[in-house]
Write a structure and sequence with these properties.
The chain is of the alpha/beta class and 155 residues long. The strands form three sheets. A five-stranded mixed sheet has the order 5-4-3-8-9. Strands 1-2 form a two-stranded antiparallel sheet. The protein has one domain: Glutaredoxin (3-Layer(aba) Sandwich). The longest helix is centred in the N-terminal third of the chain and has 11 residues.
Length: 155
């Protein structure tokens, strides 16, 4: 389990243009990792739009948002296009990152054995240390976006 005070596990994933993006690319910035179960699934749409609505405030506070799901880069690209998302969406198709961050959910949509990301929000400070961790009891539950944005902007 990744806990508050732990060094955030390193990773490299593909973005919507299939380019590699690493957590280390954001060294010196506060980073919000917003794990989401799947593009175009209602609550995930609301979650990513909530972070987009706060994009300017987060950008002004040197905070980056990285949305992470097990969806393909193509699905994430269409998702970003549909909602005009200005932050990076990453594809964890091997599920290594959702496992490393203890952000897995099995059985999404009633599909037995299907492993997706759960709705989990991790805030990492400029030194790469986890400062906040929120985990949904189930993927239909949303975090308190205002509290997360305020917390991250204050680091």
């Amino acid at each position: 389990m990744v806990n508050i005070g732990d060094t955030a596990p390193a990773f490299t994933l593909k973005n919507t243009t299939k380019s590699d993006v690493s957590l280390s690319d954001y060294s010196g910035k506060t980073v919000i990792l917003a794990f989401y179960p799947g593009a175009f699934t209602g609550v995930c749409d609301k979650e990513m739009c909530a972070f987009q609505d706060n994009f300017a405030k987060l950008n002004d506070s040197n905070t980056a948002v990285l949305g992470i799901s097990v969806d393909s880069p193509w699905a994430n690209a269409e998702f970003a296009r549909k909602y005009d998302l200005e932050f990076t969406l990453l594809s964890d198709i091997d599920r290594d990152v959702v496992k490393a961050y203890d952000a897995t959910f099995v059985g999404l949509g009633g599909i037995e054995g299907y492993m997706s990301a759960n709705r989990v929000v991790i805030v990492i400070d400029k030194d790469g240390v986890v400062q906040h961790r929120w985990v949904a009891e189930n993927p239909g539950v949303e975090p308190d976006y205002d509290a997360i944005v305020s917390f991250a902007a204050g680091l």
